[in-house]
Structures are given as C-alpha cells and as structure tokens.
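Morning!

This is the sequence you dropped in the shared folder:
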Amino acid sequence: GSFDASRCGAPPDYDQLDAWLAHPDRPAGLRDVEDANHLGAAGAAPPPVDARACDCFFVVDTCFNAAESIPFVPDSAARRWNLPVGAEEGSAAHQLVDKVVEQMEMRVAAGASCFNRSCRIYAPLYRQASILAMTTHTAMLLAALKAGKTRPLPWPSEELWQCFDLAYGDVLRAFEKFVDDPSRADRPFILAGHSQGTLHLVRLLQEQVENHPRRRARFVHAYLAGYAVPADLFSRTLRHVLPCAHAADVRSVSSWNTLPQDHAGHDLFRNMGVAWYSGEGWRPVTGELLATSPITWASGPGAAPSAPSEYKGALWPMPAGCDPRESESGAVPSGVALRYGHTVARSRQRLGLRVRELVPVDCGEL
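The structure's back. Tokens below.
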C-alpha cells in the first residue's frame, strides 16, 4: 500500500538501553543472544569494554524479511514499508517486531563481534525498510527509470524514498547520540554495516562525517559490506574520506561483496542498487563499485589476490542446540539458512535462540 508513517511505529529512544542491539553499558548475560560486546570464542573472552581504545557504530542489515513476515500475512502487520518498532504490546505488529529483533540481535552478534577486541560496539535498533522495499520495489523502480519512463512508475518513487528516509532518520539520531556524547568526545570511531546498513552508512558518511572536521579527525575507517558502494562517490561527494588502498589507511572506506567483478550476477547486483549523493538525493547505481579485499585491504581491479593460506577461518554465534546447518539443510539457500528462514516462516514467536559464545565454522573449500 501507500507509505504511511503512522504505521511505522515510534522512533526509538536512544537514551534507553533497549533501543540498542549492542551497547557497552549492557552487562554480560542479560540477554539470551549475548550482546556483541561480550561475545568471544570459548576460552577467549574479549577485553573489558573500558580497556578498548576505539568505538564502533554498527548498522545491521535487513532482518524484516519475507520468512519473518509469512506467518503474519493474514494481518496488516506484514504489509508495511518499515519495521513498526514500538507497536502496541500484544498486537500482531508487536509480535512481528519481537521476532525480527531476535534476528537483528543474531546478525549483530555475527557481524559486529569481530570488532570487540579493539572497539566498544554501539548498534542501534531502527525502523529498517522491509526486504520488499530493498529488493522488489527498488528493482521495479530502476527498471522503469532505465526504460525512460517518468510517470506513471510501477511504484511511486517518492514512497520508496520516504521509506528509506524514515529508516535513515533513526540511524542518524542514533549516530548523533553516539558521536556527540561528551563522554566519548575525543575517542576514535569506526563505522561498519552490512546490506541495508551499508546503504544508510553511505549517506551518513557524506552528511555527518565528510563535512564535519572534528568528527572526521576521529574517524578511522568505514567497513561497508554487502551492498553497492559507488566508486564515483570519491570524486563527487567524498573528498576527505578516501577509498582504502592499504591496511594502514585511515579516514578511508572498504567495501566487498560475495561475488567478483566478472561474476555473471555482478551487473544484476549493481543495477538493483541505489545510493545517496549529497546535493542530488537518491540515485541509481550504474557505474563501477568500490571493491576491497577484506584480507589485504587493497581496492580496485589491480589489487593482487590473497593466498588461501591468509584466510584465518570463521567464527559464528551458534545457538545452543540449534545449528542451522542441520535444521535448515536443503530447505532454503545458504544465506537464508543462516537466518533460520525455513524455521521462522512457520511461527509467529521468536525462536528462543540462546548464544553465549562464538563457534568455529567450516566455510568450505576456498
């Protein structure tokens, strides 16, 4: 349906700990899915939060997915542009949010815990855009634009941008709370995100870091994975923040995706992307993407590939007694399996996942 902000819940209050999926002030053991600040491999707990020299602002990827929504299809709860955080307790929308938040906690545990040996992690809960907005509606809109259509579009572009703007507004307020807190005024920080998180952080970099000298002086790096980061940002809107070329680069950006530039799906991935350009607004991504090796930290087509021996393995927040490699095996694609997509599609309740440590996992042949 048409975009209606009144159906998107309430803005999270970032003065409250519950508005953060990860926060260094949350004590260990308080949640079933342990806060990413406290997760480590068995016998290798991360340093105390007060001993970490840097801060990390992490924006989680899209967890308001089709699988989470399927049990709510008979209700209007599933038919929303944005996750209705703050929905009335006891309502179907509240049940949906509770279920999605569990997945968001899992994704933050998976994506942000790698920073907890050097950083205090701050990951906001936000009214993220639904997967339909991130994929289906975006693809329809871009197809129409490429065909030279203006009106009528298959889906009103203004409504898609309103959806993205609302999600970004929450991320922006959380970042301002994070970066302007007097107790953290001089601390260095990194930005990190995946998929939709990267979409919002690309805009945040331009609006809240590039033209803020004091923030820029504290900014170390942005790790922007899993979504299109246009290479021409660095000639059009980012002049002080540069693409990463070496592991020691600061005030820089790295970005990577799980397919190479010459992969058959590369153009599809790139052409479904949109990006924010300061002074221009949302624009289709049509040119080259920033591509960085997350092992060597070199960017661009001339970067030398890394040797398989440089890969150090992977750790995963594996819930006790609920291994997705077993419960989801063969039921859904691997990326969906890691979100328990087959299982969550069968219930309105959160799964009750319990995570206390990171477990080594085999990612297969390299």
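Headline: DSSP finds eleven helices and eleven strands in the chain.

More detail when I'm at my desk.
O.
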